[in-house]
Design a protein that fits this description.
CATH architecture: 3-Layer(aba) Sandwich
CATH topology: Rossmann fold
Oligomer: single chain
Strand order of the largest sheet: 2-1-3-4-14-13
Helix content: 25-40%
Number of strands: 14
Number of helices: 7
CATH superfamily: Class I glutamine amidotransferase (GATase) domain
Number of domains: 1
Shape: globular
CATH class: Alpha Beta
Strand content: 25-35%
Structural class: alpha/beta
Radius of gyration: 17 Å
């Protein structure tokens, strides 16, 4: 089993590399490939169980877009062939049409029919509670950008508390086949053990077993109760 981390020297904001640290505990026998910014991504040339990219800075987004552009068609092909991707935070924006930054428009890869708007003077921070398939998802959002476009045919989670891809949306993230892009941070895999088990199943693990399973499940139940109580108090 091979797990690829794209550009860890850039994509490591909001403690998102905690997702990889946890996967290493869950899958001690797996090979973890750290693809640096000048490397050819491993998934372009070989079979990879999971391709991961975390949150990155605005300036790093532009670098990553340029580095991935030569592989646009291959990325689209692998998504169609059900390659498993998990992109967290604003990393999903590099696969959209463009990113608006005041009077500038940064062309992205154009794989998904969405675009992002930056507002560097106002950071959005919020709790998130929602549902991915039959799994309750919780976490946090902290972002300078919002995503716009119609994701009704391909979203990650419905929203009970917080926002979707923007403040007027109740559909969070982007999903197509086995590509998952979400703004939820936390890190999401540590906060959501049931989702992590699902992800391990998608990676081909027959009987997923989590590291510190009892503890993370208990923590999840406690946090889930608190999030639901907070949501009830707002309604």
């Amino acid at each position: 089993m091979k797990i690829e981390i794209l550009y860890p020297e850039f994509c490591n904001i909001n403690s998102d590399m905690g997702n990889i640290k946890y996967l290493k505990k869950c899958l001690p026998e797996a090979e973890f490939i750290e693809t640096s910014i000048n490397d050819v991504p491993a998934f372009i040339e070989e079979e990879i169980s999971l391709v991961y990219m975390g949150t990155l800075s605005e300036s790093a987004q532009e670098i990553v877009i340029q580095k991935l552009k030569p592989y646009k068609e291959k990325i689209e092909e692998t998504i169609e062939k059900n390659q498993l991707f998990l992109f967290t935070g604003n990393s999903v924006e590099v696969l959209g049409k463009y990113i608006e930054d005041e009077d500038r428009k940064i062309e992205a890869l154009g794989i998904f029919d969405v675009y992002a708007k930056r507002d560097m003077l106002h950071r959005h921070n919020s709790y998130f509670l929602g549902k991915y398939e039959d799994i309750e998802i919780l976490g946090f959002k902290s972002q300078f950008t919002m995503l716009y476009g119609d994701n009704s045919n391909g979203y990650f989670a419905t929203v009970d508390l917080g926002i979707g891809i923007n403040e007027n949306s109740k559909l969070e993230g982007i999903r197509k086949n086995n590509f998952i892009g979400t703004y939820i941070i936390g890190p999401i895999l540590i906060l959501n053990p049931l989702f992590t088990k699902k992800l391990l199943s998608l990676m081909g693990v027959k009987e997923p077993k989590l590291a510190f399973e009892k503890d993370v499940l208990e923590s999840y139940e406690v946090k889930l109760k608190k999030f639901k109580t907070f949501n009830s108090s707002k309604n």
